[in-house]
Amino acid sequence: MKFVQKLKNASQKNNSLLCIGLDTDLEKIPKFLLQEKDPIFSFNQAIIDLTSDLVCAYKPNLAFYEAYGIKGLEALKNTCEYIPEEIPIILDAKRGDIGNTSKMYAKAIFDEFKADGVTLNPYLGEDGLSPFLEYEDKCSFVLCLTSNLGAKDFQLLKLEGKPLYKIVAEKVKSWNKKGNCGLVVGATYAEQLKQIREMVQDLPILIPGIGAQKGDMELTVKYGTDKHGELAIINSSRGIIYASSDKDFAKAAREEAKKLRELFNLYRKKVRNLDP
Amino acid sequence: MKFVQKLKNASQKNNSLLCIGLDTDLEKIPKFLLQEKDPIFSFNQAIIDLTSDLVCAYKPNLAFYEAYGIKGLEALKNTCEYIPEEIPIILDAKRGDIGNTSKMYAKAIFDEFKADGVTLNPYLGEDGLSPFLEYEDKCSFVLCLTSNLGAKDFQLLKLEGKPLYKIVAEKVKSWNKKGNCGLVVGATYAEQLKQIREMVQDLPILIPGIGAQKGDMELTVKYGTDKHGELAIINSSRGIIYASSDKDFAKAAREEAKKLRELFNLYRKKVRNLDP
Fold it and tell me: Which ipTM did the prediction report?
């Protein structure tokens, strides 16, 4: 099954645009979990158990697992295996290398961790991404405009009046021959998100930057979704998974996830009623 | 000790600008090694044993280890521990994320694998790199102009009238407050390497792209080194480590490494005699 279909199925079944970022940090999880054999996996397991009916995807960021070495990566592998089959897993890896080497990264992400999607960095150009694009049923989310301040250093610079992030969006559109590309656009740049969505009607857009980074939620839903109110994958990490540091952390995460899902759906309804 | 000092020490002691890329691929190493308990580590060990007096650095590319999952990363960790203390290890990881997450990557690279240097992708801008720059004695090699064809997609575009790779070089120069930045410039772009070296006199430049990618060796030495004939780290991977697929593979690697070292030194001498 193509990624976009898998995403739509999960999103429709759970009536959700919400993606939960599994950025699990041993210094932030409830202290009592540290006695467990694999605290990272135990934490993720509890979160997944109580949220998998509320999300359209999960997005573990590889950095958090690599930071704990071999043990961290074992926890990631267990987590990917534990996530219910019908929920897409997007590994936030921001990879990109020259062709020969990117092939090995693609093998790691798609064969070893069995992720459905991955985030990639465009700086090395087409041949750096093409080994990922050979996986027809997976999705390559290319960084277009990131949610952080540093986005201004290069991504917002202009070539003949056109900012680099738009050039990236155009290129990715042209690389989407197998229907397996997506973009990453930060919620902190609402106006630009609108312009990008207009350029790529049928690409899924992964949108980090609400929550701790304070992206506007209503505008994110309004500008990030396609004309059917779909294909936006709106990520929240810290705000959900660290909602409580007590025994009830997973229940608290569920409540936060529910709130966000309802809010996104309220905005979806509002947008569609305003612009029929 | 600062990275640049460690690099100069190794480079002077071994009279070498050569960096060997440990891109160890189970499909390419001699078949008889596959019976070993950890074939990747056994291969690297043999290569290191016979080349550590010929190099200024080793550069394992993380992709090749991640592709083999947990086992691959164990092999990488063992390899990093095995490399003699006086030889700098540059982990070719091409990482880059937003600040909060980059901190975890920096932890993985510098604390977990204990690398001396790392390659980073500039697309996310300053706050994505700053957690790496906090490690004063390590070196962050930022991708400037890569050796592959895809470099033309974005890196060679002129933004605000100047090619993106030059904007990156200028930014990295301005971020080099602790003397712990470097650049990655492909040998396949000799003229641009010259321009970049003129811009950043005191930064180490990591130069892939000779060998399989056919970058010009003489021009690489001429343009990549600083005025003392130093600070160029010229990488060769496949041409050295796969010089033979027989029992004598490490000996063959040594011969290739020796040849390259001598060639680089010949060009160093020639350049200095021409331009006293």
Answer: 0.95
